[in-house]
Amino acid sequence: MGSSSSKGKKQEDTSRYGQIYLKTDKTAYYAGETVTGTIFLNLISHYPGNQLFLKFKGKETVHILESQTRDDSTEYVHYSDKNQITKQSLLVHRWDDNLPPGQFVIPFSFLVPQNLPPSFYQQGPLYLAFVEYKLEAYLQPFNDSDPKMKHKQPWNLKETILPNSGDLLSSVTTQLKTCCCCQQGSNSLKAEFEKNFYYPGENARVNMELNNSQTTLNNNKVIFSLKQKLELKVAGRVIKRELVKVQQEVPTLFKDSQTNAESLTITLPRFPTENDFKRNVDHKSPSIVGALQGFRENKDVITSTTKSSLITSTFFLEVSCPMSGCCANTPKVQCPIGICSPDFQLPVVTAPQGWQPYTMNQINLAFPPNSNYMNGPFVNNPNQNMVEAKMFGNYAPNNQANLEVTQAYSPNYPHSNHNQV
Questions:
Q1: Contacts from 280-289 at CB under 8 Å and sequence distance 24+?
Q2: How many CA atoms lie within 13 A of 74 on its CB side?
Q3: What is the mean pLDDT of residues 92-105?
Q4: E strand or H helix at 158, and its extent?
Q5: Contact (Cβ atoms closer than 8 angstroms) between residue 231 and residue 240
Q6: What CA–CA distance (Å, rounded) separates 20 from 137?
Q7: What global pTM score does this model have?
Q8: Distance CA 365, CA 91 (A)
């Protein structure tokens, strides 16, 4: 099941007890969706504990640098803020005594709580913002002095948007002026968007029509673009950005009494990988200021839609038709869309030699609802969050169980550190 081992509070090596590994059927889920997964235990000696827990935790973090001028010199001040979105542990199984040596397969399932913001990661000039989630399986020792065996798995929470739930047909009539006050008639722009929900790398299409018969001004070009609005809140400050992620320009010269119809397509940027980002982003590191100073906007990648207490990331498709003449208004229509993060694959694991585990019946867990999150940060109350789950079934031997493996590449979020077992 791999060669790495987990470590406890005192960083003691747990390899003398064996190994633990957690694997879910997918790495990206929607709120309210059922998660199914498996915990694998390969114990080579008695473990000083008898309780197996599953922890679900999520957090959001924002870092910014703000330039300040003092005594004719400019310096950067670092501000950061974070919230614990959720941190809950459920008792999966309790043995009668110390865990004996042996091999165990423990299937489990639970519903993803509602009202959680989707996963997110983005860095740019002088800022970094992310929302991340992790699952952790761990054996709790009887004494705090003993190491805790654990394994963490990062995973994505997707944006929940009903396909084509918005208004995909937009139209606008624009009163055209030049030199700020000279009336130049009007024109009408109509655009029908294909859909309002996309994965990175997909093609976005629009059919548009510009009726320019009621004005003497010419249309210079048509622009079809994907834009992002990003809002970050940190230390009482609000940072707003509007970013053009990709656009297509079609040169035109449509004079009065003409109607133009076009079908336009743009390819959305891909989802980022770790290679797209600098890794030294730990807020505890003294070099975080230097890292933030080195960040740049990467237009070649696109992250997801999210809305949390510190981060709001929204996207929209826009068709605009710049007109000739000084200060002429620009007809434009927009369609809000959702961007959904894709699955990623987990590291490859292999079953240990002689793998013949006892397989327990599936254990159905229920995390308490996190309904108060959107009204404020989650209150981390251990007595409130440590819940003994209702379980169904006892474990029974099954020598036919096999450990599934997948071809893997690194998870997409560069701040997600995961243990391999």
A1: 281/63, 281/123, 281/128, 281/414, 281/415, 283/61, 283/63, 283/80, 288/63, 288/78, 289/65, 289/76, 289/78
A2: 3
A3: 90
A4: strand 149-158
A5: yes
A6: 8
A7: 0.79
A8: 9
Token pair 């793998």 is found at: 355
Quote the CA–CA distance of 217 and 13 in Å, as a whole number: 75
Q: What is the pLDDT of residue 391?
A: 26
- Report the length, in residues, of the chain: 421
Helix (H) or strand (E) run with residue 336 in it? strand 332-339
Q: Cβ distance 27 to 156 under 8 Å? A: yes
Q: Which amino acid is at 40?
A: F
What token pair was written down for 418?
């995961």
- Alpha carbon 216 to chain centroid distance? 48
What is the pLDDT, as a whole number, of residue 326?
A: 65
Residue 17 is encoded by which pair of tokens?
């007890």
Phi, psi of 41 (to 5 degrees): -120, 130
Query: How many angstroms separate the CA atoms of 49 and 18, rounded?
Result: 13
Q: Write down the residue that tokens 């919230």 correspond to.
A: 83
What is d(CA 65, CA 235) in angstroms, rounded to the nearest whole number? Answer: 11
The mean pLDDT of the chain is: 78
pLDDT, tens digit, for every residue of 405-415? Answer: 222 222 333 33
Under 8 Å between Cβ of 310 and 139: no
pLDDT at site 99:
87
- Domains delineated in the chain: 18-159+342-397 (2.60.40.640), 169-339 (2.60.40.640)
Parallel, antiparallel, or unpaired: how do β-strands 395-397 and 358-360 relate?
antiparallel
E-state strands within 159-258:
169-178, 182-193, 197-198, 203-211, 219-234, 237-254
Strands (E), 255-288: 259-267
How do residues 380-403 score in pLDDT, each as one tens digit? Answer: 332 332 232 222 222 223 322 222
Instruction: Name which of 12-16, 114-118, 332-336, 397-401 the model is least confident about.
Output: 397-401
CA atoms lying within 13 Å on the CB side of residue 130: 18
* Residue 73 bridge partners (DSSP): 70
Segment (H or E) for 106: strand 102-111
- Alpha-carbon distance of 185 to 174, in angstroms, equals 9
Tokens of 103: 């091999």
Give buried/exposed letters for 87-121 (b at 16+ CB in 10 A, else e).
Answer: bbbbbbbeeeeebeeebbbbbbebbbbeebbbbbb
Helix, strand or coil, per DSSP, at residue 78? strand
Grouping H, G, I as helix, E, B as strand and the rest as coil, residue 323 is strand
